[in-house]
Amino acid sequence: EETNALALSRDVFMKVLGDLGDLVIKAADKRRLKAIPIFARAGLKDFEFDAMAEQMEDMKFKKGDELSTIGTEITPCIVLIREGSVMVKEEGKPPSTLGGGGYFGEETLVPAANNKGQNITATRTIVAVDDVVVGGLPFRSIGNIVGGLGRLVGETNKLDHSVKMADLVKHRILGVGTFGQVWLVSKKDSTDDEVFALKIQIKRELLNHGQAEGVLREKNVMASIDHPFIIKLVNTYQDKRCLYMLLRLVQGGELFSVLHTDSRDGVSEKAALFYAAGILEGLAYMHQRKILYRDLKPENVLIDSQGYPVIVDLGFAKVVEDKTYTLCGTPLYLAPEVILSRGHDKGCDYWSWAVMVYEMCIGNTCFYESGLDQMGLFKRIVKGKYNYPPLSSASAEVRDLIKGCLILRSSERLGNLRGGSADIKGHPWFAKMEWDRLVEKGYKAPWAPQLKNALDSSNFENFDHLAKEVDPREKKLTSKEQDQFKGF
């Protein structure tokens, strides 16, 4: 027993040493990334360098191995040399040597910013002088973290100010909410691709509900996001009465309508995997930028014209460096730590994601029970109490993934561990998923809407009967109240 105890203590000690070693490497990588000119000029945030250091991929090469060869295709990336040295040969220049602490690959990112990350032709031959250990940071990881490589070449995620409010024509109401309406709009004399959704929010209603600060936060978060599976903010406007957010139109309606029809609840596990993967990509993109989404549910995911999921409604989204304590979200999908006000981080989004995966496969949410009131629901959630119907066909793989994400302690939850979203992507349920192909929309979706034209809104309920004239009794905003919306 003493021998076993000593062996266990040794193993624990070695694991702690290994973790400390990894932390030292990550800290060193972060310092070196900060010193690379293309990153230093871009004004990246500290958390972005943290995320890039986490995404470094370890690689080893033997003496004489060529890391790249002039004229061959290479993947755009930054490479940090940790151990050993390499010889760099470039036409018209004398050979040079890079040792530990050096880096290469900066030049591959500039053309990549214009080529969507496609492989490019190497302009240098790089050979290992001795055994070499390097850390590689691929194009896609950098782009996901910094929100588009345009930032590295002096561009930022700017709104399209060429689309003026006066150029828009309203067609019909797509949705209604507490603060206003969403309209289908197009540009006057436009081509088919100049069709949008216009979210209109009444300033007085926002003030009455204490949401002036929240809507500014939503706008700023959305302006920083550019991802195929997250709604795109095109431009913003305001007048004395309303705020306007011009959004890219997503025509396929809500994922909820795909999951719940008159004839069935839920979808095939293959379809669930497809939708879950797309939503996971969107969440991971936000999390890499320290953005918590906090209201994931099928009603907040739309289906685009190709059948792919798009996360919408970022009203609760927030940049969070550590934890936040605001109770927000939809009861059926809330994580225990949100309910208990213990502070929540990105783990709350992975909990909600797992509840949605269950709903897609089974047909209802895992903590729902007929006749259950909200207090009873919350009790089941904080106890993590759920099960599967007796005749459920859910595979062992998806059950294991859901179980890993529905762990009560957020710090032990899959997706919120050291590996982040990569731990979920590497789960056996996603074994056949090609993630780059997914982001490039290379898969055929389980279902795609049949659309007549760019103005086809048949997948949305018609709310035209709720169009209202301005209430003459509505109190006009004072100049001080208007000031609360500056910067929108």
Distance between the termini: 67 Å
Indicate the low-confidence ranges by residue numbers.
none
How much beta, percentage-wise?
15-25%
Q: Indicate the structural class.
A: alpha+beta
Number of helices: 16
Number of strands: 19
Q: Any idea what the radius of gyration is?
A: 25 Å
Strand order of the largest sheet: 11-12-13-15-14
Task: Describe the main β-sheet briefly.
Answer: 5 strands, antiparallel
Shape: globular
Mean pLDDT: 89
- Give the helix proportion (percent range): 25-40%
Short note summarizing the structure:
33% of the residues lie in helices and 18% in strands.
Kindly describe this structure.
The chain is an alpha+beta fold and 488 residues long. 33% of the residues lie in helices and 18% in strands. The protein has helices at residues 2-35, 37-40, 46-54, 106-115, 139-146, 203-208, 212-223, 255-259, 269-288, 336-339, 347-362, 374-383, 396-405, 421-425, 435-439, 479-483, and strands at residues 57-61, 66-68, 73-74, 77-83, 86-90, 96-98, 103-104, 120-121, 124-128, 132-138, 168-176, 180-187, 195-202, 233-238, 242-248, 291-292, 301-303, 309-311, 318-319. The strands form six sheets. Strands 11-12-13-15-14 form a five-stranded antiparallel sheet. The chain has a four-stranded antiparallel sheet with strand order 1-10-4-7. A hairpin with a 5-residue loop joins strand 5 and strand 6 (96-98). Helix 1 (2-35) crosses helix 3, helix 9 (269-288) runs antiparallel to helix 11 and helix 11 (347-362) packs antiparallel against helix 13 (396-405). It is globular, with a radius of gyration of 25 Å.
